[in-house]
Amino acid sequence: MGNSDALWKEVSEEETEKIIEKVARETVDRELDFPATFLINCFRPVSFIGGQLTRVFLAPFTPLISDFPYEYIPVFEKNENLKRLLRRIKELTEEREENKRKLKEKGN
């Protein structure tokens, strides 16, 4: 499959879950959960248009950027996947905060 074909490839449900998990974990690990949640909620209404525009503007450059993660485009242009990402970020943030609380209690 050529790089330009990769722009239009659909992603399986299993791949979608892996991508959502990876992005959510990276976001929470870097403690960017608040800004990420804010930005995702701001841009969620236009995510489909953004995905389509990304494909159009990236198409001429695909031979130059062969390692671009194209599979992220169809995942995050779908509103339901953005909601799933937000839920997962919230779950991981709550886990992180609970772990911090437990460590603090152990330290006292």
What's the topology here?
Blueprint: H1 3-6, H2 13-29, H3 33-43, H4 47-58, H5 72-76, H6 79-107
Helix pairs in contact: 2-6
Please, could you describe this protein's structure?
The protein is built from 6 helices and no strands. With 108 residues, it is an all-alpha fold.
| Amount of beta strand | under 5%
Structural class call reads mainly alpha
Biggest sheet statistics: none
* Residue windows where pLDDT falls under 50 for at least 5 positions: none
- Whole-angstrom Rg: 17 Å
Q: Helical stretch count?
A: 6
Number of domains: 1
- Separation of the first and last Cα atoms: 58 Å
Shape descriptor reads elongated
Helix content: over 70%
Q: Report mean pLDDT, rounded to a whole number.
A: 86
Q: Please provide the ordered H/E string of secondary-structure elements.
A: HHHHHH
Secondary structure: number of strands: 0
